[in-house]
Design goal:
CATH superfamily of the largest domain: ADP-ribosylation/Crystallin J1
CATH topology of the largest domain: ADP-ribosylglycohydrolase fold
Strand content: 5-15%
Strand order of the largest sheet: 4-3-2-1-5
Number of strands: 5
Shape: globular
CATH class of the largest domain: Mainly Alpha
């Protein structure tokens, strides 16, 4: 292949003669020859051999924009969430008064050292990644075995996360797949006690938590559910693995459902939130979440922008409905992704989780190009997150257990179906 073009994940390729556009969603250097996989605007997957004349046929598009179900939106969702998590990590346990003293009247706006480095992610991003891994392994299991309970497979993945915290679960846990081998994930980043205890005590995969917690540890990790069928039920059921209070898991379902409506139907954030509440708002156990989200929609309609004091009136974001409400309010009122995330982290509360929720929403809407370059340059695990986003597009579209191909075997090795 000519050195004049070196496509990478999520580059947009444009055919030099037909103007066809493809988003690169996988690079397979050993299959059995170098190969790219691209997705077109209709969702079709195209294998592209990296032959000597590749650069005569394809160019990397500059400023290509986003199409409706562009895989780059998935990358934006995951990276935006991680960026919000990392920005908020340095101030998670600080009051607004202390944030003012430390960072000035604008609050924190640049990555600041936390956990020994700038751009450090927390347990929020770690658990988001393991949730995504479990969802992809569930795809492999369903295809290869014909039967699957996805929350059980996600549960197994979250137990692998627990191992990275040097905590031994009650049940046996497989250590296969690629994600657990990422050494940077083996780091304790203030994991929530509810998540740790619920996972540690679970005796079987898919077993709901036996507690009455509605902490935000369920809602903050479920964004990947938006890109799989039945996002509301899937996110609710996976959040319920650690959080037993209805608000704790139904708020998670609503968050994933809002994201899925934006992703699948190109709704605005306001439309997605309103329609999701219309469909799910009257479910038993949804009252707390419905009430606070309706308040946020009213504030937005009145033109009220989030301020640290205004956010404080909603709460600290330590519980599920408050975290979702704060992240949603900041995303609704944001001039751009950076504006929304900085509003979401500058308050006296759970800044990393509210920043992550706002970042998931705004990253999906605006794509990864909207994330400030100086944030991305320092963001921990950026390459891992990028690969996971690519796999969310690639694995469900390509994996076929009936075809004993090199690529299916490669997927099974990375995402064993259990």
């Amino acid at each position: 292949m000519s050195n004049t073009i070196k496509p990478m994940l999520f580059h947009c390729l444009q055919h030099n003669h037909t103007s066809q556009r493809l988003r690169v969603i996988q690079c397979s250097p050993h299959y059995p020859r170098p190969l790219l996989w691209g997705q077109d605007e209709q969702g079709h997957i195209h294998p592209l051999p990296l032959t000597s004349d590749f650069s005569n046929k394809w160019s990397i598009a500059t400023s290509p924009g986003l199409f409706a179900r562009d895989p780059a939106r998935i990358l934006g969702c995951l990276l935006g969430g991680a960026a919000g998590d990392a920005l908020g990590a340095a101030v998670e346990f600080m009051s607004w008064t202390n944030i003012l003293y430390e960072f000035g009247s604008q609050g924190i706006r640049a990555m600041t050292k936390a956990y020994g480095r700038k751009g450090a992610i927390t347990d929020d991003t770690q658990m988001m990644l393991f949730t995504a891994e479990g969802l992809l392994r569930a795809v492999v299991r369903a295809e290869s075995r014909g039967i699957c309970h996805p929350p059980a497979v996600v549960h197994h993945a979250l137990l692998r996360w627990l191992l990275t915290q040097n905590i031994s679960p009650t049940t046996n846990v497989g250590k296969d797949g690629w994600l657990i081998k990422e050494s940077a994930l083996w780091a304790r980043r203030a994991p929530g006690n509810t998540c740790v205890n619920a996972l540690r005590l679970s005796s079987s995969f898919g077993e709901p938590a036996v507690n009455n917690s509605k902490g935000c540890g369920g809602v903050m990790r479920v964004a990947p559910c938006a890109f799989f069928s039945g996002a509301f039920e899937l996110a609710s059921d996976t959040a319920r693995l650690t959080h037993g209070h209805p608000t704790g898991y139904l708020a998670a379902g609503l968050f994933a459902d809002i994201l899925q409506r934006i992703w699948q139907h190109s709704m605005s954030l306001l439309e997605a939130c309103s329609s999701s509440l219309k469909e799910h708002g009257d479910l038993p156990g949804m009252a707390e979440t419905k009430t606070i989200l309706e308040l946020v929609l009213k504030l937005h309609q009145e033109g009220a922008r989030p301020t640290p004091k205004g956010i404080e009136k909603l709460g600290g974001g330590w519980v599920a409905e408050e975290a979702l409400a704060i992240g949603l309010w900041c995303a609704l009122c944001a001039h751009n992704l950076e504006d929304g995330i900085t509003m979401a982290v500058n308050h006296s509360g759970d800044s990393d989780s509210t920043g992550m929720i706002a970042g998931n929403l705004l990253g999906l809407i605006h794509g990864p190009e909207a994330i400030p370059a100086h944030w991305l340059a320092e963001l921990e695990l950026r390459e891992v997150i990028t690969q996971m986003a690519a796999d969310i597009s690639f694995v469900p579209a390509v994996y076929d257990d009936n075809e004993n191909t090199d690529i299916s075997l490669w997927i099974e090795e990375r995402y064993p179906g259990w």
